[in-house]
Amino acid sequence: MKNYPNALENLTEQFAKLPGVGGKTAQRLAFYLLSRPEGEALAFADAIVQAKKTVRTCPVCQNLTDAALCPVCADPERDRGTICVVAEPKDVVAMERAREYRGTYHVLHGVISPLNHVGPNDIRVKELLARLSDGTVREVIMATNPDTEGEATAMYLSRLLRPLGVKVTRLAYGIPVGSQLEYTDEVTLLRALEGRHEI
After folding, report:
1. b vs e for 13-38, b when ≥16 Cβ sit within 10 Å of the residue's Cβ?
2. Does residue 50 lie in a domain region?
3. Of 31, 158, 164, 178, which has fewest CB within 10 angstroms of its CB?
4. What end-to-end distance do the CA atoms of the chain give, in Å?
5. How is 104-150 classified by DSSP, letter by letter?
6. Which domain CATH number covers 37?
7. Contact of 57 with 100, CB cutoff 8 Å
8. Count of structural domains, the chain
9. In what order do the strands lie in the sheet with 167-170?
10. Does residue 197 sit within a domain?
């Protein structure tokens, strides 16, 4: 005998497909949504449908947008000579929070990961190369995560871009502000030493 109606089971299964959501959390979310007024549940469903219908990738930088261009590419004040390459759209949000970077972005929508069968053709490398074809870009900043896949992607792209006469740089890594040396791992300490500068 089934414990729950088919619709509730289906809703739980759909929530369980979300990243980081296990079976118990999916069940809690399904019960919570059913406990809300019908208007709230319909607004939630409508928000999902509208996002799927209207959000697409920017034809220039591949970031998410619901307009012809994303806000960064549409901003005439941005420095078009600098491109910051990130793995995911959420990385653009993180960079923009600092309010210091005034160049443009390129979103790869993934990183090279042979173990997960993701190669250069599976991410937005061709679109990045197309942006460099007119010679206006002076510098490409690699801002992928400092993990194995992020490093492999940055190295692959730097080897691909250097022959084009573009300066390729990598974000500096080091000890986070507010942390203590005794709790810092060896790789982070090594990167911090390599990236030291005069004060």
Report:
1. eebbeeeebeeeebbebbeeeeeeee
2. yes
3. 178
4. 72
5. EEEE-SS--BGGGTB-GGGTTHHHHHHHTTTS---EEEE---SSHHH
6. 1.10.8.420
7. no
8. 2
9. 103-107, 79-86, 139-142, 167-170
10. no
3-state SS, residue 181: helix
Range of the domain at 19: 6-54
- Residue 112 burial (CB < 10 Å; 0-12/13-18/19+)? buried
| 14 domain-assigned | yes
Looking at the fold, whether 158 and 86 belong to one and the same domain comes out as: yes
| Three-state secondary-structure class, residue 164 | helix
pLDDT tens for 52-98 read: 999 999 999 999 999 999 999 999 999 999 999 999 999 999 999 98
Same domain, 41 and 85: no
Token code pair at residue 172 = 């500096």
Average pLDDT over residues 102-116: 94
CATH number of the domain where residue 154 is located:
3.40.1360.10
C-alpha span between 68 and 63 (Å, rounded): 12
Name 13's Cβ contacts closer than 8 Å, sequence gap at least 6. Answer: 26
